[in-house]
Specification:
4 helices, alpha/beta, 128 residues, four-stranded mixed β-sheet, 21% strand, three-stranded antiparallel β-sheet
Length: 128
Amino acid sequence: MNDTTTALEPLAARLAETAPGLRVETGPGSTGLYAYDASNYRVPPRAVVFPRDADDVVAVLRACRETHVPVTARGGGTSMAGNAIGPGVVLDFSRYMYTAGDSFVMKPGFVGVWKAVETVRKIYVTVK
């Protein structure tokens, strides 16, 4: 058993207890996809978790705090500064993000104004 597996055992046990059914990926084929973002940095996480709602996020944050495992929140993985990668648990919110009219809602609770995002995108992305 390696150090990563040993470190994950208490975390996995705690998550199974507090958030049954929560998808937790720990294999190199799964976590390897989360070792990078749009930056040049490469940091493989110990695990990737796909929270379905706010209760899942609370359970993950509690379990990580209790087991001293760092947490990184990740949306689209488009950070060019390495903000979407980390050595502990990556919370992948992209599976439960959807648009609703003029705003986007990213469960478990992040809400932003889609028009503002589109305005910024047009200013900085449009090539004339």
